[in-house]
Write a structure and sequence with these properties.
alpha/beta, globular
Length: 375
C-alpha cells in the first residue's frame, strides 16, 4: 500500500479534498500520512492508520518516505519545499493544487475527463509532477470538453464572473462582513415600506465609499454590492495573469503545442470578481470552425463526460440551473444559453458555471491519486 503524504488538508481546498476522498473511500487504498505547518505532534484525523501524529511539513526526511505527496498548502510552500525535496533525491509523485509548477515542462496539468490521454502519456514518459489547473479553465473545459474533443473550436472569448471563494476563506468572510455593514446601515429604512429607495441607495453608497482598509483588506475595494473588473497581477500589457491562464493552461491541458503538432486554440477575455460566495461562471463566445447544427453541439457537450449537463436555453431553466446557488457543492457542470449568434451560424454563445472548489481545485487531485493507484 502506497504511503501518501497530505499537506494543507485543513485549508479550504484541502478540506473539500478530504471530504471527497472520504465519500469515494479513497483512504481504503492508501496509507495516509498527515503533515502540518502549525501543529506538528498533534493528533492526525481519524482517517490516519499507522501514523496517527501530525508530521512536520517542512521535514524533508519525513516527506521523502512518501511515495506520493498531495499538497493544498499553496504556492509559497511549493516554492520552498519542492526543490529541496527533489534535490534530496526524492523520486515520488507530487500532486499539487498550487499554480507554481503548472507551466513547467516537467509537469502536467490534470483534468482527466478531458486529458486522460495526456496524463497517461506523461506517466509512460516518467513525469512525476501532476498539478491542478486554474479553476475557471478547468470548469470551462469540463463543460465544453465535447467541442474541444471534436476539434470544433477556432477561437473563444471567456468573460468570467468569479466568486469570492476564488481568493480564499478570508475573502469569503470579508464579503459577508461587507454585506452585513450595508444591511446594518439601512435596516431601519428597509423595515419601513414607505422609505425612499434613493435614500437607501445613497446610504449604501456612502458605506461603500467609506469602508476602511481593514474592511477591504482582502479585495482592496468593496465587493458587496459591487464588482471588481480585475483579478491577479498586471502582466504589463493590459492583461491580467488570470486572463493569460485561459489560453496558456487550456492548451497545455489539451496537449496543444508545436511539438505535438496540434494547433493552439486562442482563448482570451476579461476576468471579473463578483459578489457570489462560491462557484465561477463564464459567458462564452465561440467561433466554430464551421456551422454545426445546434442539436449536434448539444449532443457533443452532454455526451463528453457524465458531469457536463446541457441546460435548455429558456428563461426558466437558465434561472433555475445556471447559477452559483444551484451548483455549489455539486460536481455537475451545467452549460446553457447555447444559441447561434447574429454574426453567423459559426458563432456560438454559451454560459457555464462550476464549483471551483471541486472541478476547479480538489477533484482533479483526488482523481489523479486514483490514476496513480491504478498505474
Amino acid at each position: 500500500m502506497k504511503l501518501v503524504g497530505l499537506v494543507g488538508w485543513r485549508g479550504m481546498v484541502g478540506s473539500v479534498l478530504m471530504q471527497r476522498m472520504q465519500e469515494e473511500n479513497d483512504f481504503a487504498h492508501i496509507e495516509p500520512v498527515f503533515f502540518s505547518t502549525s501543529n506538528v505532534g498533534g493528533n492526525a484525523p481519524a482517517m490516519a492508520k499507522n501514523e496517527t501524529v501530525l508530521q512536520d511539513a517542512g521535514d524533508i526526511d519525513a516527506l521523502k518516505k512518501c511515495d506520493i505527496i498531495i499538497t493544498c498548502q499553496g504556492g509559497d510552500y511549493t516554492t520552498g519545499i519542492f526543490p529541496k525535496l527533489r534535490a534530496a533525491g526524492w523520486d515520488g509523485y507530487w500532486i499539487d493544487a498550487a499554480s507554481t509548477l503548472r507551466m513547467d515542462d516537467s509537469a502536467i496539468i490534470v483534468l482527466d475527463p478531458v486529458n486522460l490521454g495526456v496524463i497517461k502519456s506523461g506517466l509512460s514518459r516518467g513525469i512525476k509532477n501532476y498539478i491542478g489547473g486554474n479553476c475557471t479553465v478547468s470548469c470551462m473545459l469540463m463543460g465544453l470538453g465535447g467541442l474541444f474533443q471534436q476539434d470544433m473550436i477556432e477561437w473563444m472569448t471567456s468573460m468570467t464572473y468569479q466568486a469570492a471563494s476564488g481568493g480564499g476563506a478570508q475573502h469569503m468572510r470579508e464579503l459577508l462582513t461587507q454585506f452585513g455593514s450595508l444591511n446594518s446601515e439601512v435596516k431601519d429604512l428597509l423595515d419601513n415600506p414607505a422609505s425612499a429607495i434613493l435614500e437607501i441607495d445613497r446610504r449604501v453608497l456612502g458605506v461603500q465609499h467609506s469602508m476602511s482598509s481593514e474592511e477591504t483588506r482582502q479585495f482592496g475595494v468593496p465587493l458587496a454590492g459591487n464588482l471588481i473588473p480585475w483579478i491577479d497581477r498586471d502582466l504589463g500589457n493590459g492583461m491580467s495573469r488570470e486572463e493569460w491562464k485561459a489560453a496558456a493552461e487550456a492548451n497545455k491541458i489539451l496537449g496543444n503545442n508545436a511539438s505535438s503538432g496540434s494547433r493552439e486554440i486562442p482563448v482570451d477575455g476579461l476576468c471579473v470578481r463578483v459578489g457570489a460566495m462560491r462557484c465561477h461562471s463564464q459567458a462564452l463566445t465561440i467561433k466554430l470552425k464551421k456551422d454545426v447544427p445546434l442539436d449536434e453541439i448539444n449532443d457533443n457537450i452532454a455526451s463528453h463526460n457524465e458531469w457536463a449537463k446541457v441546460v435548455p436555453n429558456t428563461r426558466e431553466a437558465s434561472m433555475r440551473d445556471l447559477t452559483p446557488a444551484a451548483v455549489t457543492g455539486k460536481l455537475t457542470v451545467p452549460v446553457g444559453r447555447l444559441r447561434k449568434m447574429q454574426m453567423g451560424g459559426d458563432y456560438l454563445s454559451a454560459f457555464t458555471v462550476g464549483d471551483q472548489l471541486l472541478w476547479g481545485a480538489a477533484e482533479p487531485l483526488r482523481r489523479m491519486l486514483r490514476i496513480l493507484m491504478e498505474h
